[in-house]
Structures are given as C-alpha cells and as structure tokens.
Write a structure and sequence with these properties.
The protein is of the alpha+beta class. The chain has 2 domains: about 25-115, no CATH class; about 125-225. The protein has helices at about 25-30, 85-95, 100-110, 110-140, 150-160, 170-190, 200-210, 220-225, and strands at about 40-45, 50-55, 55-60, 65-70, 80, 80-85. The strands form 2 sheets. It has a 4-stranded antiparallel beta sheet with strand order 1-2-3-4, covered by helices on one side. The longest helix has about 30 residues, at about 110-140.
Amino acid sequence: AAPTEGSVRDPAQVDLTLRAAPPGPELVRRARPGPRGPQLNLRPDGKGGYVVRDGEFTALIGPDGTIAFKDKTALQRWHGVAYEVDVTDVVMRIAGDDPYRHAKLRVLQETAGLRAELAAQACEERLRTSLAELQGKLTTIWEDPGLAADRRRALLFKMWDDCAEDGDEEVLTHANQARATIEAFVQKNLPEGSSFAFTEAELFALNERRISRARFEPYRGRRGTRP
C-alpha cells in the first residue's frame, strides 16, 4: 500500500517507491534517433542528468528521469544592438499555443528510453537507501521519550502498513524485506508477553483500520499459524 500521510518530520514514513540515480554512457546512444532525422544535441549536465539544446528551447532531464523545458524568449535573441522579435512566436504564445510543441514532442519521444532507464536506476538506488535506513528509523521511534508506548507501537504499525503491495518485482522485494525487518524489530524489542508488546485488542484495532491487504501479525511466526 502506498504511503498516505507523513512528511519529512514524520519518522514513520517509509518511502519504498522513490527514484534517483546516475546514468551510464550507454544511455545516450539509446536515446539518440536513427537515420531518419538529425541527432538530438544531448549532453550530460555533470549532475547525473542530461541537457538537450534546441535553437529556441532547452530540455533539462533530471537524474530521476523527469524532464522540463525552458524556452528562450524573443528578448534573448540579439542582432547587433537591436532585438530580433518573432511576431508569429509572440502571437502564438499570447494565444496559448506553443510554437515549438512538435520539436518538444520529438525530444520527449526520442528520450523516452533514456528517461525510463534513469527512473528505474533512481528507484533502485532510493529503495536500497530507504531499506538501509529503516532500522535506524525504527529505533528512533521506539526510543522516543516524548511518545507514549501505544503511540510508538502505532507508528511502527504505520511503517509496516505503508509498505507497497503493488508494483514491479523490485519494489515488492524491497517492501517485503522492509516488512520482515519491522516484524523482526517488534519481536526483538516488543516481545510477545512483555509489557511493551502489542496486545490482542491493539492488533485487532490496528488491523481494522489498515490499508494493506495483508494483516499485521508480528508474533505469528513465534506462536504458530493462526486458524
């Protein structure tokens, strides 16, 4: 289930669907067009992304595969001491149309493979980072002296409940590993029968409000399968 709440200040938020990673040089070759048209002026930006420069606009491809277009304006085109103003350009912009729409569509089409691979690489990197940081987040929540025990247990449950149940194989693998890590943390630090353990009533209430298809049963493996 995808995260539904939380912020950078919310220690219970676990992001297992994020994206961002540096590309390899082979990606440029994949993004360039074939013999039917001129090659895009595609260059690395030195920050893990790419830049496509056209005569009238620049396309900025981020290291996470996102793309943004930055248009030149008529006032940016110099000829001697005077400005060269493209009247058609200005009229089309006033009318709400983009005179370079087709050129931008070509950039989108011919960089689609590059952007998809950048996004996949970014997702893999951020999933690994999120999983590596999970143990520390669990410890921070459970050792927070400003929170009551029931609130801390609810936050641990929320982290479990926020893990993805849909997505590609890589996302699901990391989500399953995250859930296993959370359950192992509960079994070690909130063992069944201890004063800090989830009670039966608490588990019932949490499962009633869960957004996941799976049930939260952190002690299941320790006491056998429930009927």
